[in-house]
Write a structure and sequence with these properties.
The chain has one helix at residues 107-122; strands at residues 6-12, 33-34, 39-41, 44-51, 55-62, 67-75, 82-87, 93-98, 101-105. By secondary structure, it is mainly beta. The radius of gyration is 15 Å and the shape is globular.
């Protein structure tokens, strides 16, 4: 895979559609961190962040009867830069820059996601 970010969209109407992120995991891949709240990832709201030893994933499922999955993933070996950025003097904004992705959300979710990626990159 030469693409930095792989976006998958599926329409799922089977009984297995309630599994969520688990259906996108590879054999023996385990989620080591999941955000408690939702994130804005490049202006897409409502995504949850997940970290495994192999990749960082942002996922959400939409729809009630006809479900649609949105998954953005970045393999760990393709992460070139990641940093926390705080801007502003009076009205401060805080976000996480992962390669070219701008990730916003609850401060604790963003910080914990940053730490989880650091830990996975060091292993």
């Amino acid at each position: 895979m030469n693409e930095e970010i792989l976006t998958k969209q599926t329409n799922e109407t089977s009984r297995l559609s309630g599994l969520g992120i688990e259906k996108f995991l590879m054999p023996n891949e385990m989620v080591t961190y999941a955000t408690a709240g939702s994130l804005y990832v490049s202006n897409i709201p409502g995504l949850k962040g997940y970290v495994t030893k192999n990749r960082v994933m942002f996922y959400k499922q939409e729809g009630f009867i006809f479900k649609s999955d949105i998954l953005n993933e970045i393999p760990m070996d393709q992460i070139k830069s990641y940093k926390l950025i705080e801007e502003g003097i009076i009205f401060k904004t805080f976000y996480f820059q992962l390669n070219e992705l701008k990730i916003k959300g609850d401060r604790s979710d963003v910080l914990d996601l940053y730490r989880a990626i650091q830990t996975s990159k060091l292993k």
